[in-house]
Amino acid sequence: MNAPDRPGVLALPVDARSCGTSPAHEAAHLHVSGRALYVDDVAEPQGTLFVAPVLSKVAHGRLRGIATAAAQALPGVVRIIVAADLPGTNLLGSAQDEPVLPAETVDYVGQPIALVVARSAKAARVAARAVVADIGPLVPILSIDAALEAEAYVLPPVHLVEGDVPSALAASAHVLKGEFAVGGQEQFYLEGQIALALPGEDRTMKVLSSTQHPGEVQHWVAHALHVPTHSVQVECRRMGGGFGGKETQAGQIAVWAAVAAWLTQAPCKMRLDRDDDFLITGKRHDFIGRWTVGFDDDGKVLGIDMLQAARCGFSADLSGPIADRAIFHTDNAYFLPAIAIHSYRCKTHTQSNTAFRGFGGPQGVAMIEAIMDDIARHLNLDPLAVRTVNLYGDAPRNRTHYGMEVEDNILPDLLPRLAVDCQYTERRAAIAAWNATQPVIKRGIAITPVKFGISFTATMFNQAGALVNVYTDGSVTVNHGGTEMGQGLHTKVCQIVADTLGISLDKVRITATDTGRVPNASATAASSGTDLNGRAAEFAAIEIRERLRRYVAQAHGVSLEDISIRANEVHLPGKTLPFVQVVQQAYAARVSLWSDGYYATPKIHYDRVTMRGRPFYYFAYGAAACEVAIDTLTGETRLLRADILHDVGRSINPAIDIGQIEGGFVQGVGWLTSEELVWKADGLLATHAPSTYKIPTAADVPEQFSVTLWHEANREDNVFGSKAVGEPPFMLGFAAFFAIREAVAAARVDSADAAADARVSLSAPATPEAVLRAISAVHA
Amino acid sequence: MTAASSDSSVNAASPSMSSPPASTSSSQHSAPSSASASGSERPIRFWLGDRQVSVDHAPPTLTLLEWMRERGGCASVKEGCAEGDCGACTVAVTDLDANGEPQVRAVNACIQFLGTLDGKAVQSAQDIATADALHPVQQAMVDCHGSQCGFCTPGFVMSMFALYETRRAAAGRGLGGNDSRQPGSDSSHEPGRDISRDDALRALSGNLCRCTGYRPIVDATRAMCAAPWQGPDMDLWKTRLAQVAADGDAIFASGADVAAQWPGHTAGRFYAPRSVSSLSAVLAERPQARIVAGSTDVGLWVTKQHRAVGDVVWLGAVQELQGMQSQPGDAVAAQVWGDGTPVLEIGAAVSLSDALDALLPHLPNCALYFDRFASTPIRNAGTLVGNLANGSPIGDCPPLMLTLGASLVLHRDGVERVVPLDDFYLGYQKNCLQAGEFVRAVRVPLPAGVVVHAWKVSKRLEQDISAVAVATAFRLTKGKVAAVRIGVGGMAAVPSRAPKTEAELLGLEVSEEGALATALQTLRNEFAPLDDLRASAAYRRQVAANLLQRSWLALQSATPPDAAGAVSSAATAATAATAASGAAPSTPSGRASSTHSVHSLADLSPILMEITP
After folding, report:
1. Aldehyde oxidase/xanthine dehydrogenase a/b hammerhead domain: from which residue to which, for each copy (chain A) (predicted)?
2. What pLDDT, in 10s, does the model give residues B480-523?
3. Are residue A529 and residue A469 in the same domain, yes or no?
4. With 50 as the cut, is the pLDDT of residue B299 above it?
5. Minimal Cβ distance to A666: which of B78, B214, B584
6. In terms of CA atoms, which chain A residue is nearest residue B305?
7. According to the model, what pLDDT value does residue A2 have?
8. Does A113 share its domain with A32?
9. A161 exposed, middle or buried (CB, 10 Å; 0-12, 13-18, 19+)?
10. Does any domain span residue A192?
């Protein structure tokens, strides 16, 4: 590791002129003019062919044969590829449990069973529909409960036990059983999955891939082609959104394109039609939780025994770490003195569910927040009071159920600050008055906190490399292993490099992520993009800066500490030199003007067997207050107002951070309200396009929408004092969901059912139908 | 959103799905046809940015998006869904309005057939920036941090641009002659420069963004007109459009070579007749031809199902189908609502945007319903007649039009008959059109003294397909129901009236407590709706009844007697209390009347906010 001496946590190491300001996204001018190139926009080489998948119409069955002759005869068709044609391994995936193309068994409706290569995308898609598969049906497992019943799992169950749960429950003044289900979610990146594979000389392959993990794509393609890793180069300039959906599952698309290119020796592009993308690729895992919780008269949790079951789909993919993170985040912000979590990773004959912003964290948070809500209603307390009384605090109430101490907890300050700023108490009273007189429209308000652990829980992934090149005209390129999916990573890295070198942002250009430049890079995931790659780039820039300073010190006979670089100028006693002049002189003096940088996150460790350790470097915090209204005639809901107070440490780019917070929040609200995945009885996903699957639109976002950044820098030593921001705000959406529960409770208040049990039986997503049902439902 | 097309098959019994791709059409194509049926073939001509383009020998169902990306060099136009639902492909299309003035509208390139661009101008995001500077719309997006991944951005920019150009054109007309400069007419205070939140949301209703949470995009939309107007003189469009003006009837045809040039597409003719007589002639000669107006449904047959549609006859160029005329009355309207009931006749080529704008002043309670119909780009492309002729059970216009007692004017070769909409639908996607017959227009009665409501329920406010839609029309006499019509969507295989429920309602006293119970029960049982991804049958039945209750509550609150006084004072108190606490964002000071004020909760059900038990 070439990390230099660590700067103090709160003192910035350099004259930060760019970091802390809000320059536009590095590609904003290209986005708005349509000149930003995505994979499909790169000029196609002459003779490029197009690949379309043939999808299984059967959820589970024996593949007895594939009839291709009719399709082969259609105009423009070049070749049809089946499992027997594959040049390399037919096993992919993190657990090597997914076929490139199935040879014997099909495992879900939508599984690609053959590939059509044709001279146009349209021709390939038309011909794909003419391929006929002979599949002998087997009995599919299509729901979590059916999988639990059959004990069908993609990975063995995991049990985490902390404390003496039976005793804690026995000693509790109140014990409740409850359950909560939370639906899956389609990533709905606006740019669908795509790869362009370009065969090269000497058994090499270059792939332009829309992927969060070029290194993984490189490995997969190499395996599928049976060539060494060095024979495959993967490049990604940008994605049109990722959200986790292009972490592993861009790999299959790239492999299919590469296999086609290998077999035809022509450039091959595979761009999934939106419906095919929905049908083929995995989504956020839907979960069910069932629990027994014991608590005291204040609502303080004493013990929980909980089952968590996730729909993983037909293969493991990332389901193991996702279900693990659900376990880690079942505390959300709360101290749970005794808890047992039994986590089941259910195998179903559906799409293989995968990463999606939050990576299991939201599903874990869902369970504990539903518990907080149930406790509050059972005790007739303000849910905010129950949440507050359960927050992590001082020792011994600062230890998570996986043995990590919460050292940087700011929620005891942050949560009440938001409540005061948004006038929670006053508005809650006003809403109660409203609900007392309005029979049709009921309103509700809720505040929920979030605490999210930052780091890959697999410790080895917490490393990154970067490359900074200074050219003799003073311009700079930076390259790192992270990928740009809209989150502003490249912009922040450019800001970090500019400030570290003491030059203006316009001198720094980011280049496409490329496995040939920075190898073995981790996925851009786990919110860690800037933490890891930004710091690696900082270290690379520091290395060059220090070489320049040493050169100037030597050349001008001044001491090192008297030399600084800022605003494109090198300052030394009595003299100021343009940066470019120093660069040229250093070059002439044979000083290296480029450097790598490497960073590995300190302090973290985790034992998978004992499930104890410090998997996270630090936590990011936040809270949201949402007010909603529901229409008791239809169950439709509206988000009226949202106030967010969120912790990004010292913000490198406040506009980008606020964009992440707003976008994450709205995506979370969508997950919990309008976004519903519906499978038909035969296993076909019925909601496989935006016509049937409804992500939020502009009109779903409240006019009163306030986001405030918490004022403190990261208490851990992190790049420029910042904190990660990608995933944590997603969970702020729970405030909207639990505000809907408040409104439902208000609608139920006069009913006999409510008198018997004040809890609200409403799972997610809270579609109009679910809300209307909950108004009259008795708690399960 | 996909239910707005005119796909009225002239012969429902002979689907063209399996027509052989090239050979048949090719031979038809080479066979000389009767002179009136097809004029000379010629390329289609349109403007793409600053260049004039001419295309011949393209498949009739080639989409604008395919052509732009694969031949037109327009990588700025993105495919996000290929079904008109995400807006990544949004382009601005300019043509001349009824007054001969240029109008700029956002449409979805992914389901727009290329032939429909004949004589128009198309712009995408790469066309509006100069070499040196971004367009003000684009600059506003940059300044407001309105892009993250950037993939949806060009589409958003073009939706915004269409609004920008509409405002700029209006400002230009408003300034008029050279002596109209008035003191104090500082540009920043021109009313056209202020974009309300509702106007911004309406403009953006067809665009999905998964990254930003929309707030910065709405900010950019509201800010984009603040700078001095930028853009060519609007008269430039008149000159340019004159240069590519459509002439002749048949636009283009493609033959056997289409498979080589556009593999995967099928050959056929694209007809754009310019008169009803030409249209009739084409239909007489090619009874299998698919009639298309907005192609917001047929477009998906092509992009999603890859169906071979065969020959396409596009209604958009037929002059007689463009207009809307107020008429003193007709027989059907008289039968439904009494003699002298005025009628608005809306031609088959009139866009939903124009048709709904014309209807709104007569149907002020339907403002939200109209805004919830698909999205702005879909309403710009789709037609009211197409939505009716399509006959989808979940189309949004049929319930309202059934309720109003609309009728369709069916035309075949110079002979017309008028069919009440009630009699038009025969079964799922079946109607009473005969071979060679097409829907020339819809006649919408606008009866006096009738209270019309329309309610739609879907998972999302905007751009979603109804789970349930209910429209009601009541005429009261002395507080009693003297006449009532109810139209429902999502409840049966076809859009339907609810005659049993209507019968229960006749004669009821509006102010009487509990009077409605039997009618609600009847409506719950009158249909056997489907369980599907949008809703369960049970939910649909319950909500249909609840929406009737909503109309009833609205009638009660609109009816003067004493009860209403107590009602509104309580509501006013509640509203005032809320406003004082700062809790509710935009509580309306009064009932949302005819204005488009639709996106706050209060407007979700404006009337019900004022009702207490």
Report:
1. 33-139
2. 999 999 999 999 999 999 999 999 999 999 998 789 999 999 99
3. yes
4. yes
5. B214
6. A126
7. 42
8. no
9. middle
10. yes
Question: Pick from A629, A662, A699: which is nearest to B201 by CB?
Answer: A699
Which residue among B80, B306, B467 places its CB closest to the CB of A125? B306
Q: What is the pLDDT of residues A437-476, one digit of tens each?
A: 888 999 999 999 999 999 999 999 999 999 999 999 999 9
Tell me the chain A residues in contact with residue B571 when contact means C-beta distances shorter than 8 Å.
438
Burial class for B277, CB neighbours closer than 10 Å (0-12, 13-18, 19+): middle
B40 — pLDDT class (breaks 50, 70, 90): low
A531 in the same domain as A500? yes
Q: Name every chain B residue with its beta carbon within 8 A of the beta carbon of A659.
A: 145, 148, 211-213, 216
Q: Which residues of B touch A120 (CB under 8 A)?
A: 70, 262-264
- A32 in the same domain as A82: no
Q: Which residues of B443-470 are buried (b: 16+ CB within 10 A; e: fewer)?
A: bbbbbeebbbbbbbbbbbbbbbbbbbbb
Domain limits at A252? 45-139+187-280
Please report, for the domain that includes residue A506, its CATH number.
3.30.365.10
A195 and A213 housed in the same domain? yes
Residues of A in contact with B63 (CB under 8 A): none
Q: Do domains B23-43+246-320 and B322-514 have the same CATH topology?
A: no
Residue B306 and residue A129: Cβ atoms within 8 Å? yes
| Residue B20 CB partners (closer than 8 Å, separation 6+) | none
Query: Which of A259, A280, A301 lies at the terminal end of a domain, its last residue?
Result: A280
Cross-chain residue pair B125–A692, CB shorter than 8 Å = no
Best mutation site among A188, A634, A675, A688 for testing chain B: the one with the most B CBs within 10 Å? A634
> For residue A322, is pLDDT > 70?
yes
* CB atoms B213 and A665 under 8 Å: yes
Please tell me whether residues A489 and A590 are part of one structural domain. yes
CATH architecture of B322-514: 2-Layer Sandwich (3.30)
**Of residues A568 and B609, more confidently modeled:** A568
Mean pLDDT of A330-355: 98
Residue among B79, B148, B578 minimizing CB distance to A659? B148
Which residue among A484, A627, A662, A727 is the active-site one? A727
- Residues of B in Cβ contact (< 8 Å) with A692: 465, 533-534
What is the DSSP code string of B530-571? Answer: PP-SS--HHHHHHHHHHHHHHHHHHHHHHS-SHHHHHHHHHH
Are residues B306 and A24, on separate chains, in Cβ contact within 8 Å? Answer: no
- Residue A658 falls inside a structural domain: no
Residues of chain B contacting residue A192, judged by C-beta atoms under 8 Å apart: 79-80
Q: What are phi and psi of A644, to 5 degrees?
A: -125, 135
Pair A494, A567 in one domain? yes
Flag whether A304 is in a domain.
Answer: no
CATH topology assigned to domain B23-43+246-320:
3.30.43
Q: State whether B205 and A697 contact (CB < 8 Å).
A: yes
End residue of a domain, out of A556, A573, A600? A600
Count of CB pairs separated by less than 8 Å, A with B = 344
Q: Band of the pLDDT at B189, cuts 50, 70, 90?
A: low
Q: What is the DSSP string of A536-583?
A: HHHHHHHHHHHHHHHHHHHHHT--GGG-EEETTEEEETTEEEEHHHHH
Is A727 in the active site?
A: yes
Mean pLDDT, chain B, integer: 84
CA nearest neighbour of B8 among B489, B442, B493, B439: B439
Q: Where are chain B's structural domains?
A: 23-43+246-320, 44-243, 322-514, 562-610
What percent of chain A is predicted at pLDDT more than 70? 98
Does the distance separating the beta carbons of A697 and B463 come in below 8 Å?
A: yes
What is B44-243's CATH topology?
A: Ubiquitin-like (UB roll) (3.10.20)
Three-class secondary structure assignment of B21-59:
CCHHHHHHHHCCCCCCCCCCCCCEEEEECCEEEEECCCC
* Predicted confidence (pLDDT) per residue in A670-713, tens digit: 999 999 999 999 999 999 999 999 999 999 999 999 999 999 99
Other C-beta atoms closer than 10 Å to the C-beta of A566 total: 17
Query: How many domains does chain A fold into?
Result: 2
For residue A34, give how far its alpha carbon lies from the nearest alpha carbon of chain B (Å): 4
- Lookup result for tokens 């795509």: A194
CB contact under 8 A, A638 and B145: no
